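Task 17 of the worksheet. Students: predict the tertiary structure of the chain below and write it out as structure tokens. Keep your answer in the requested format; marks are given for formatting as well as content.
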Amino acid sequence: MNLIRLRDMLSISEGLLELKEKAGLREIMDELIYEAVFTGSDEKRKALFILIKEASKAAGAVPASIQGLYEEMGEEYPGFTVPAINIRGLTYDVARAVFRKAMQMDVGPFIFEIARSEIGYTKQRPIEYAAVVLAAAVKEGYTGPVFIQGDHFQLVRKNYLSDPTAETDYVRGLIKEAIDAEFYNIDIDSSTLVDLERPDTMEQQRPNFEKTAELATFIREIQPSGVDVSIGGEIGEIGGKNSTPEELRAYLDGFNNTFKAGKGLSKLSVQTGTSHGGVVLPDGSLAKVKIDFDTLRILSDLARKEYGLSGAVQHGASTLPEEAFNMFPETGTSEVHLATGFQNIIYDSKSLPSEFRGEVYAFIKQEYVKEWKEGQTEEQFIYSTRKKGFGPLKKKWWGLPDDVKEPIIKELEERFSLLFDKLKVSNTTDIVKSTVRPVIVRKEVPEILRKEL
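Model answer:
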């Protein structure tokens, strides 16, 4: 697109952006974000992402920490569970659908997130993910805090055991990149370091809480002035055995005795029987998952009443049956993470052309054949691997015609509507307004764009 068109809508003075015409910006946002994501120059791509984020803030959609709300939840549970939504493909269109439905239903707290692993295989670095989400907010006319989260910023166990310093430095670098991109919510996952061979629960959790405290201290050192990044911890790797009250207490006591750098954790992820993406059967269907809601209720209660956290966090929930979601507010769960279910709606939609789906699956079978485990059926392999079909083919996904994308997005909107209703987050904007006060962190528009504007 010709960036000169932006001159009527915004100006730049001493490197800082001023918005002159919001309606015009909304009108050209489709072109602008496409240009930013797919331009060939890395320098220009980054500059455009910064421009879009600054324009979004000026338009009233501001990256924010959910810390204030979670502190309120730690004192008195308001009866809802915050949805955290991972978007792996069609990110701009899907984020627009989230904002549309949230505004229709007066939803205050909802989080956009991306995990360490997803950043890699979906080819969405933090600055791109943040810019695309904020571009969607502008396009839909959303104003208010936008909660963007680093999900599962995880220390990979085999990497850590091989070289603890290198693995820790990698996660530190990812945290810095995310905060620079205005992710003001970070989930540290060092639950992979729990050592069950140690003699008691405290010692088993020690590598976990000590590493979490180290990385949380780093977050507090680099967060922008006036921003308290919301930090989450985790006590049991998702897909493992169910978490216990003894583990929760050992982890949080150990963390609180170790961490001395300001506000501590706002929430705690626990394991209650799910696995990421669900368990796929040989015919490609999903096995039924039974969540231990009693454990979730007990752990949420403990986290809130004894430690002042917002409560427990549930991962791996998006493939659960509809009737399960109302249980999260009933058990006091503070946050639930949702990813694969949305991916499944996209891939399995009757509106997705079978030729295009076949092209993606052929690519997966060619590029990721080494991940095809012995004994897996083709359906199991495709289901477990198709998440990797979004990143390398991103431009083709974005380029699908509107008559293909619109019915898929409508299906997703219906799912968002159901989830917002079941999680009881409709009519909650007032509580967010009273507890969250976004801080606008202004950043200079890079020189490469100032010349054009």
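Marker's comment: The chain has a mean pLDDT of 93. The first helix runs from residue 22 to 38.
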